[in-house]
Design a protein that fits this description.
This protein is an alpha/beta fold and 325 residues long. It is built from 15 helices and twelve strands. The protein has three domains: 116 residues, Rossmann fold, CATH 3.40.50.10800; 99 residues, NadA-like (Rossmann fold, 3-Layer(aba) Sandwich), CATH 3.40.50; 76 residues, NadA-like (Rossmann fold), CATH 3.40.50.10800. The structure holds 1,3-dihydroxyacetonephosphate and iron/sulfur cluster.
């Protein structure tokens, strides 16, 4: 079936209770609904599990559900499918891509790899399955530093596709990984000038940032971590105010966990006050309901690609378990 719009264009009866309908469909069809922290609040509230990229991959690996509905972006649903080739994986909108994954085309990356023959390839999970198939180990922002540190210091490493995360790991570990020149459109457009202004207006606020942000911003941050690490930091900290430099979806869980604290989204370099990922935000409750009802769009991958891309993901999960992550 073709999806010109990326989803089934079916009208949803406005009189239904969409939360109840989604819950009923989930039960009837034995569905696991996974949602990334960057999803809208109402999607997070109806998910069976909300998490960062590592947590979501771990849930996908261990599920007994018959169907996985992935409220996130395409590469995340692909990872779930690679780990569960026998299960149906649904994605609310096939157009929910990722600028970071798009910044690393497989043909160009294969050439880059050829030019660095004695290097191990560590790739951030935000990439296509074709790139995963060209990699030795996958990582996420939760485990990247530990995975790099688990390799001997003399081991030469290519890190792709995020140059900002790669530079952050190089700085933290003292390694000199060769970096692919890719980046995330959301984390690259924060305005340092506006953030500095916010800091002077809110002198007690701490700046917390995702490592996909540029080095100049990370240098100013009081804490750097994956979305889960940022959330956990706000729970443990005695600080009451935070300027949050990542996608705004995470603020929903931060506010839920810390109703007495203030969270200020770091502003981007445009007219908006906060920073949304346009890919993540393509998903809606209506598209989730339609996907569950009609079991479309389904993520389809060839058996060959699943086979070629599986090993580096399993390696990441094995190492993460070893690190207690
Ligand atoms: P994490 O889920 O690892 O925090 O990464 C954030 C992100 O950009 C996902 O697309
Ligand atoms: Fe990709 Fe950035 Fe959106 Fe994450 S936030 S899905 S890395 S574009």
């Amino acid at each position: 079936m073709m999806f010109e719009k990326g989803f089934l264009d079916v009208k949803v009866d406005p009189s239904i209770d969409i939360f109840e309908e989604i819950n009923n469909l989930k039960k009837q069809k034995n569905v696991l609904l996974l949602a990334h922290y960057y999803q809208d609040a109402d999607i997070q509230d109806i998910a069976d599990y909300i998490g960062d990229s590592l947590g979501l991959a771990q849930q996908a690996e261990k599920t007994n559900a018959d169907i996985i509905l992935f409220a996130g972006v395409h590469f995340m649903a692909e990872t779930a499918k690679i780990l569960n080739p026998g299960k149906k994986v649904l994605i609310p909108d096939l157009n929910a891509g990722c600028s970071l994954a798009d910044s690393c085309p497989p043909d160009k990356f294969a050439e880059f790899k050829k030019n660095h023959p004695d290097h191990i390839v560590i790739t951030y999970i935000n990439c296509t399955a074709e790139i995963k198939a060209l990699s030795d180990i996958i990582c996420t922002s939760s485990n990247a530093v530990q995975i790099v540190e688990s390799l001997p210091v003399e081991q030469k490493i290519i890190f792709a596709p995020d140059k900002n995360l790669g530079a952050y790991i190089n700085k933290k570990t003292g390694r000199n990984m060769v970096l692919w020149d890719g980046s995330c459109m959301v984390h690259e457009i924060f305005s340092l000038e506006k953030i500095t202004r916010l800091q002077s207006q809110n002198p007690n606020a701490q700046l917390i940032a995702h490592p996909e942000c540029e080095a100049a911003l990370l240098e100013k941050a009081d804490f750097i971590g994956s979305t889960t690490a940022l959330l956990n930091y706000t729970k443990k900290s005695t600080v009451k105010e935070f300027i949050v430099a990542t996608e705004t979806g995470i603020l929903h869980q931060m506010l839920k966990a810390n109703p007495d604290k203030t969270f200020i989204p770091a502003p981007p370099n445009n007219a908006c006050a906060c920073n949304d990922c346009p890919h993540m935000k393509l998903n809606t409750l209506e598209k989730i309901y339609i996907a569950l009802k009609y079991e479309q769009p389904e993520l389809i991958m060839s058996a060959d690609l699943i086979e070629r891309s599986k090993k580096p993901i399993l390696k990441m999960l094995e190492l993460s378990a070893k690190f207690g992550l």
